[in-house]
Write a structure and sequence with these properties.
The complex is a heterodimer of chains A (about 250) and B (about 210). Chain A is of the alpha+beta class and about 250 residues long. The radius of gyration of chain A is 20 Å and the shape is elongated. With about 210 residues, chain B is mostly helical. Among the domains of chain B are: about 100 residues, Fumarate reductase/succinate dehydrogenase flavoprotein-like, C-terminal domain (Methane Monooxygenase Hydroxylase, Chain G, domain 1, Up-down Bundle); about 50 residues, no CATH class. Chain B is about 55% helix and about 10% strand. Chain B has 6 helices and 4 strands; from the N terminus they run αααβααβαββ. Chain B has a two-stranded parallel ribbon. A two-stranded antiparallel sheet of chain B has the order 3-4. In chain B, helix 3 runs antiparallel to helix 4 and helix 3 runs parallel beside helix 5. The relative contact order of chain B is 0.09. Classes of the chains: A alpha+beta (about 250), B mainly alpha (about 210). Chains A and B meet through helix 1 of A and helix 3 of B.
Chain lengths: ~250, ~210
Amino acid sequence: MKITLRIWRQQHREDAGRMVTYHLDDISPDMSFLEMLDVLNEQLMLSGDDPVAFDSACREGICGACGLVINGIAHGPQAAIATCQLQMRSFRDGDVIDVEPWRAKPFPVLKDLVVDRSALDRIIQAGGYISAPTGSAPDAHATLVAKTAADRAFDAAVCIGCGACVAACPNGSAMLFAGAKVTHLGLLPQGQAERNARALAVIDQHNAEGFGACTQIGECTAACPKSIQLDVISRFDRDVLFALLHPDA
Amino acid sequence: MRRSCDHDPAQGDRQTRRSQVSRHGGYLLAGLPKAGYARRWLHERLEAIRSEPVEAVHDRIATLLSIKGRRTITSFHRELGQIMWDYCGMERTADGLMKALQLVADLQVEFWRNVTVTGHNEQLNQALEHAGRVADFFELAQLMCIDALHREESCGCHFRAESQTEDDDALRDDDRYSYVAAWEFTGAGRAPVLHKEQLEYEYVQLQQRSYK
């Protein structure tokens, strides 16, 4: 395959940045998108140019490290996959492909396609945890969990924290991410003790980081590599409302 | 925390510690009055050890960026991986491991002469990160070969071709190799030192396992 790439190049945080065009020949349709970028970087390094910086780790869709806006779509044209799971066979010979970083105010570009997503970490620090006694592990069945609750909690827990929801949202909202965490922990008995405090801490941190408000557009769930559904946001909103109305609960 | 100029600071410390112990359900936390002392103690020791390793890292980074050779980091990484796959994989021989040691050493020399690492040190530089890792992998690869060469038996999932039973099964040598090995790094280019922890079994008998 022959392809033309237009990639966002930005030396550092303060650099204005620009799209730069590259041409690649002999790209195998069986390559992953990131392997194609590896090939480009090999060529750039051999010619003494700075390779394109991009994040990746597991390259099997479970770690949440990768994330590119490809032709304007977070994680590219295929639904329910992360960027690393996208294959070049999803494109046609001769295609021109635009590659950009996540665009959101709380995600400053560090270099080229690498953004700082520590705002999501700070949301987790604010409330994405439970308090549990340390020491010896309790018996596996000491706390009973209803099957429906376990299933729904797991549906939310599959969030890998990649930030595609933020990149896809016209408001730059991280409510799908935050809602997934609050729903995951709030559905389980171990998460009840801090449920109210968690909802308020998470929404406060979310807003303090500069993420926008949710207007139920749904771009987030369309871009989510784990297909997390919008109902986690409704549940999050309900928990916040309950906590505000029952400050002593 | 109770603190005033007219009471005994030592007494204050004890009270603070006691209250913290009880407040945290038996967990002993470092007493806050000691934090200043600990910070000074740590700072002095960090300053003492900081200069030499930090300078070594700076030198290494400067060297990597100044080589400006003709081969990419990935090409070295892949060739190193191929050597290990071919000669230090599941089945290995003494001859193969000796060959691997030589190949890795030669490749390491070429790496430090001919690798190209682009960009600068003062910004995010993934090529430099990769180069540092591959530089370490040469040392690790050599250690893996040395360890494999040292263990002249077939054991676990590693098969020394010279050590097999008459019907081609893995042949253990518990008399000589019934220990856990830890290799001490003694510096770049120097031979590592072997430390052994003997495995002593009181109830089970070590015996040949059949994979058939």
